[in-house]
Amino acid sequence: MTPLLVIADKEIRDALRNRWVISATLLMAGLAFSLTFLGSAPTGDLGASRLAVTVVSLSSLTIFLVPLIALMLAHDALVGEMERGTLLLLLAYPVTRSQVVLGKFMGQIVVMAIATVVGYGAAGLAVGLQGEGADPQSWHAFGALIASAVLLGAVFIALAHLVSAVARERGGAAGVAIGLWLLFVVLYDMGLLGILVATKGQIHEKIFPWLLLGNPTDIFRLYNLTAFENTRTFSGLAGLSGQMEFSPTWLLSALFAWVVVPLGAAMVVFKRREL
Amino acid sequence: MTETMIHLSGVSRSFGSVKALDQIHLEVRRGEVMGFLGPNGAGKTTTMRILAGLLAPTEGSVAVAGVDVLDHPVEARARIGFLPENPPIYGEMTVYEYLGYLATLRRVPGVGLKQAVERAMERCGLTSVRDRLLRNLSKGFKQRAGIAQAIVHSPDVVILDEPTVGLDPIQIREIRALIRELGGEHSVLLSTHILPEVRMTCQRVAVIHQGRIVADDTLDALESRAHGSTMYYLRWRQPPVIETLRQIPGVGSVTPKEEGWLIRAESPDDPLPELVRLSAAEGWDLRELTQAGGSLEEIFLQLTTREERPDENEESKA
Questions:
Q1: In this structure, how many other beta carbons lie within 10 angstroms of the beta carbon of residue A48?
Q2: Residues B218-238: pLDDT tens digits?
Q3: Which of A128, A150, A184 is nearest to A28 (CA)?
Q4: What is the pLDDT of residues B122-156, one digit of tens each?
Q5: Which domain-ending residue is among B219, B241, B271?
């Protein structure tokens, strides 16, 4: 096994041991079930498939939940080991610093993926087993939701690694992680709304979509609410999607860039950091 | 027995304007246990971290088992077993899991991994606690686990940074016996400021002071060298100013120690008669006078309490 896999494997075992996996999975499953069976009650009147409604509801839930879980899971990935003194040991081993960051990142992605796939998957499966609203396109949208939720998790894990590489202590890293969550989940969109109000909606139509790319949760939302026809219709974005600057592939690429850039920065910072 | 396993040449390291290491030269041969002595803050841990590839030197070269640590850090680290000052443990793992994880990271091949872990546990006396969580073990056992991870891959070089700090006397005795046993199979660099530890475990000793190596020799050679210079400890009720003491013929250096002064005599003049005469004549009221012999502790004091002089580095090389 390469050092990368050994480190990733340990991260997964640690998350299983300290019940991160089970807690995150249960939380995601519990909320997904609630939204699926309580939030999609009016689908009969609207004519949308139940699974499509679930996708739209889970998209909103994901924006709040996944970044929070990811940041909490990974904010002390490096600084925590620094405080415990085990990082010093790890770096005296025949592994590179990049391998340490990547190995931890990979392990945490797996943890996030297990929680998302099992948590959301169980809710989706429950809808499917009910024998209603399970058309292939809805399943496709549901699969894309899970995959993009894992990708969104990867974005925030990467951001948490950057925080962890810079931070001097765990407490500070936790504070910055919460700040990041507030920024991307609450404040950024409030800021955009503020701009719209201040300019009376006169902000240049070419600029606004690009501003949305400055927030990974907005990219995720745009992707899931506009990439598939049934979710577009139900979310009320069918008209907007025709004017969208970005294709679904473009949006996924932007989300992917949100993983690569902070993770790369985390590796550079960590490489230069003196212990 | 003459193959060099650790080689530091002209190594310096600065932290901002502070020079932690200044032109360090050090060699450890195959199978040798070398003591690395120095007072707190002398540069021991910095040297250890440079050797382990955790810090880059500002200048100089470092090689472990013939592999350049700066050019090939991963290959060099594969040949080292390192125990940092505080035992680095994953408290949520059992001893067996901990060693298994670290042995895998050391790329111990799968077929030999179990045997390697078993052997390391056996050598370090950990077999009885193999399934216990590390966080529930005593400090002595944690330290053993730290040493076990350093030898689990049978490295050429083992670097131990203060391995007995905080242990009780029984644990200290056991760890020292283990370190002695490691010599022969591994080359060991043992950082410590506990002098009896060096005497009990090491064949050779290097003394570092203020970032410079001030002695590097066998224990016997150091002790015989020390007989060429004498240290006196004097305590007066009305002590003179330090300049007065420095001007007495034969006084090499004057260093405050506890309530008195440590005075190094410079051959060929012995300053003692004049010191005693002046004590009586000037009314300094001499209360205590002790002559230091050639024990390791005294050698250490001589080497690490002398005053800085421009030509001192040349003296220590001679």
A1: 21
A2: 877 776 666 566 778 899 999
A3: A150
A4: 988 899 999 999 999 988 899 889 999 999 999 99
A5: B219
Q: Considering B219, B244, B279, which residue would you say is the last residue of a domain?
A: B219
**pTM, two decimal places:** 0.81
Q: Which domain holds residue A69?
A: 3-272
Q: Are residues B17 and B49 in the same domain?
A: yes
Please give the mean pLDDT across all residues of chain B: 86
Each residue of A88-128: pLDDT tens digit? 899 999 999 999 999 999 999 999 999 999 999 988 888 77
* Helix, coil or strand: residue A205: coil
Residues B119 and B251 in one domain: no
On whether both B213 and B90 belong to a single domain, the answer is yes
Angstrom distance (rounded) from CA A113 to CA A184: 21
User: Domains in chain B: how many in total?
Assistant: 2
Structural domain of B252? 225-317
Using CB atoms, which residue from A10, A18, A89 is nearest to B84?
Answer: A89
Per-residue confidence (pLDDT) for residue A46, from 0 to 100: 53
Structure tokens at B294: 């050639």
- The verdict on B117 and B144 lying in the same domain is yes
Q: How far is A54 from chain B (nearest CA, A)?
A: 39
Does A94 sit behind a cis peptide bond, omega within 30 degrees of 0 on the bond before it?
no
Q: Best interface-test mutation with B: which of A81, A88, A272 has the largest number of B CBs within 10 A? A: A88
d(CA B28, CA B204): 9
B69 touches chain A (CB under 8 A): no
Q: Which two tokens stand for residue A257?
A: 């860039």
The share of chain B scoring above pLDDT 90, in percent, equals 49
The total number of structural domains that make up chain A = 1
ipTM of the complex: 0.82
